Amino acid sequence: GPEVYRISFVFPNNDKYDGECIRTPDGALERHGDGVHTTPNGITYTGNWKNDKMNGFGRLEHPSGAVYEGEFKDNMFHGLGTYSFPNGAKYIGNFNENKLEGEGEFIDTQGLEWSGTFHYTAAPGLKLKLEM
User: Fold this and answer.
1) DSSP tag of 111
2) Which PANTHER family does this entry report, sorted A to Z (predicted)?
3) Please, what is the end-to-end C-alpha distance for the chain in angstroms?
4) Residue range 24-36, pLDDT digits in tens
5) Strand order in the sheet with 127-129
6) What is the pLDDT of residues 38-48, one digit of tens each?
7) In 35-48, which positions are buried (b, 16+ CB within 10 angstroms) versus exposed (e)?
8) Contact call for residues 32 and 4 (beta carbons, < 8 A)
9) Closest Cα partner for 31 from 13, 4, 1, 12?
């Protein structure tokens, strides 16, 4: 396979990438492997890259306190993940192209666990999970 380089790169918009990359056949460097991308406004992604995009497993932290940890596909939340809201609520489950979709659990700000099938953030038939 192509040779993997470790770089520290600052983009014109002052985003910064520290991590692994490969050189494409036309000579461009693209993010590939493990790396950390930070933006001047405080967003940090730590995880896997492929085809110059967030692909694989990673953690995206937002200055608001929101955190997503899980699977990514082409810069989107896609697959299994956990999204922690700034208010302390949390969703654990399936994502489809940045949307909550499929089986999941929602833990509200009171710590109550709700489980059900989510479809684009709406969760019809959400049931409270009680620990007996």
Assistant:
1) S
2) MORN REPEAT-CONTAINING PROTEIN 2
3) 53
4) 999 999 999 999 9
5) 4-10, 16-23, 29-38, 44-50, 53-61, 67-73, 76-84, 90-96, 99-107, 113-119, 127-129
6) 999 999 999 99
7) bbbbeeeeeebbbb
8) yes
9) 4
- Report the chain's mean pLDDT, rounded to a whole number: 91
The DSSP code for 13 is T
CA–CA dist 65, 7 (Å, integer):
28
- 20 forms beta bridges with 6
CA angle 30-41-79, nearest 5°?
55
Its sign, for the CA torsion 104, 108, 111, 113, is negative
pTM: 0.88
Q: Taking a C-beta distance cutoff of 8 angstroms, is the pair 100, 87 a contact?
A: no
